[in-house]
Amino acid sequence: MRITVSLIKADVGGYPGHSSVHPKLKEISESMLENAKNSGLLIDFKVFGVGDDLQLLMTHTKGVDSEEIHKLAWDTFVKATEIARELKLYGAGQDLLKDAFSGNVKGLGPGIAELSFEERKGEPIVAFMMDKTEPGAFNLPIFRMFADPFNTPGLVIDPTMHDGFVFEVWDILEHRKVFLKSPEELYDLLALIGAKSRYVIKRVFPSEKHPKISKDEPVAVISTEKLFEIAGEYVGKDDPVAIVRAQSGLPALGEVLEPFAFPHLVSGWMRGSHNGPIMPVGLDNAKCTRFDGPPRVVALGFQLANGKLVGPVDLFNDPAFDNARKIANEIADYMRRHGPFEPHRLPLQDMEYTTLPKVLEKLKNRMQGI
Ligand code: F6R
Ligand code: MG
Ligand code: MG
């Protein structure tokens, strides 16, 4: 059975500030999606809040970029925005950057990760949701899952993974893409994706020699929307989401989660302007408090059963990730002590899309030649 999994998210109002999602926004979203399920449009759905982002996870058979599914997500965000306005939640409607829906939510503000595939006999998937960071924050962990044998011994041990994977990398500034094969083009791949504010992994495919999964069927997808490009000015970070399939010729569930045992530095955090560690947390702790952060990542695991979402298991709600959280807290302390100095604060080039240029503008006429 060919199933599409769509994870579509937006910040339509925070509570308080930019820290979390009000339960009423989740309630109204659930009732909207329940209607869509009853009418047969959706097979199944789940609604979550991660940081200040409202997350709609949906399964259906309409394929990626379906107008019906995108309209459903858009209408749900619009409805949730009405409640957010009533409750005067912070930044109500923040991510709905355009007034009207025109066939696809891409470019309108919400972030989207969608995968369409033939559901296998056993189909474990993980929905990753990050808050207070940008799509490039997924580069390192996705690379490690599918290309780093020190993370994923399956690349060495399992003959079905031995031919590696193909990475679709987007240049989000120039709007171009390139497909790079690992392990053959590993260094080219790293040359690009190490520059995570510009080159982002969009999808991962099996190699053409993969014995179990067609080379055209993506096994991971990441949302790559750039809010500043849509809005033309800073309107908050484009907190990314991803869907990753696991097991049986793909990285095992534990290999998919292992990269997050290292809380790597990502950009975002306070005012979308700071480098800081990404902390893996369970849903209960998916609220951005300290210095509007630190950036968080949640991992929810499901088995698919003919499109039904069996789950979730809140995968980072586990003592095995305590040490990563402890290290993240230590790094947070260390980074915070730099105050407004780089490299805690992002380099100037990345500050271009924040409110900083407005401050610098004031000093323009006072600048003298040296
Ligand atoms: C980061 C984020 C917050 C805000 C900060 C200031 O992505 O959304 O850190 O940038 O709370 O928000 P305003 O300017 O709305 O007071
Ligand atoms: Mg917000
Ligand atoms: Mg957010």
Task: Give me a quick take on this structure.
The protein is 25% helix and 26% strand. It is built from ten helices and 15 strands. The strands form three sheets. Strands 5, 6, 7, 8, 9, 10, 13, 14 and 15 form a nine-stranded mixed sheet that branches. A four-stranded antiparallel sheet has the order 2-3-1-4, with helices on one face. Strands 11-12 form a two-stranded antiparallel ribbon.
Would you kindly provide a written description of the structure presented here, covering whatever features stand out?
This protein has 370 residues and is α+β, with helices and mostly antiparallel strands. The longest helix is centred in the N-terminal third of the chain and has 20 residues. The radius of gyration is 20 Å and the shape is globular. The model has no long low-confidence stretch (mean pLDDT 95). The structure holds fructose -6-phosphate (F6R) and magnesium ion (2 copies). One magnesium ion (MG) binds next to loops.
Report the portion of residues in β strands: 25-35%
Q: What is the total tally of β strands?
A: 15
Radius of gyration: 20 Å
Global geometry: globular
Terminal-residue CA separation: 69 Å
> What is the chain-wise order of helices and strands?
EHEEHEEHHEEHEEHEHEEEEEHHH
Low-confidence stretches: none
How many H/I helical runs? 10
Average of per-residue pLDDT values: 95
* Percent in helix: 25-40%
Which key terms come to mind for this protein?
single chain, 370 residues, alpha+beta, 9-stranded mixed β-sheet, 10 helices, 25% helix, globular, binds fructose -6-phosphate, binds magnesium ion
